[in-house]
Amino acid sequence: MVGQPIGRIGNIINGDILGGQSNLPWATAYTNHDAILQAGYQLGVAYQPAAAYEALGTLVILLVLLAMRHRKVRPGVVIISYVALYSMSQLLLDFLRQTEPVIAFGLKELQLTAIATLVLVMPLLVIIWRRTEGRARHAPEPLLTGILRCGAGVPG
Predict the structure, then answer these.
(1) Of 19, 43, 135, 137, which residue is most buried, by most CB within 10 angstroms?
(2) 134, pLDDT greater than 60
(3) Distance set, CA 21 to CA 35, 84, 147, 152 (Å)
(4) What gap in Å lies between CA 4 and CA 156, rounded to an integer?
(5) Residue 153: predicted pLDDT
(6) Is residue 2 over pLDDT 50?
(7) Residue 86, SS3?
(8) Where are the alpha helices (DSSP H) in 15-142?
(9) What phi, psi does 104 have (nearest 5°)?
(10) 100 closest CA partner among 35, 34, 40
């Protein structure tokens, strides 16, 4: 997760993941003739930095995953959540990316791949969630609580 935002910085430098034309203050205009602008993009014109949005999205995903890891979720949940969250981010953020052609249903190849990935991964998350929920609901009473209740004359 740390490597993906770093990779997107390279995309920003090269100018190879761009959004539509923009007048926003953070829009990026490339003037270096070494920039790898896609067909239809021009030097000196400001475009939405779609790669920067993707970098920010991956940093948000990293924070969510770190929070999940801190909560000590069941093994496998963090990696499956990463795949699901990244797929969702690509599905949404790719609407900003203007450098890729629309393939089918008004969606780009990356978005169609993200949907297919979600269809495969979401059932796994549901299965793991149900197994985790069931264990938590029927978890044995902590030892110290049982000892305190018995010591206080309350049936344990």
Answers:
(1) 19
(2) no
(3) 17, 30, 68, 72
(4) 52
(5) 52
(6) yes
(7) helix
(8) 50-70, 77-93, 109-137
(9) -155, 150
(10) 40
Nearest to residue 36, comparing CAs of 19, 21, 51, 14?
14
The span from the CA of 128 to the CA of 113, in Å, is 23
Please give the residue that has the higher pLDDT: either 33 or 81. 81
Query: Token pair for residue 79?
Result: 């990696």
Mean pLDDT of 82-88: 89
CA distance 83 to 23: 34
85 by Cβ neighbours in 10 Å (0-12 / 13-18 / 19+) ranks as buried
- What integer best gives the mean pLDDT of the chain? 80
Structure confidence at residue 143 (pLDDT): 45
Please state the separation of Cα 17 from the chain's center in Å.
Answer: 17
Output the DSSP codes for 5-33: HHHHHHHHHHT-S--SB--STT-EE---T
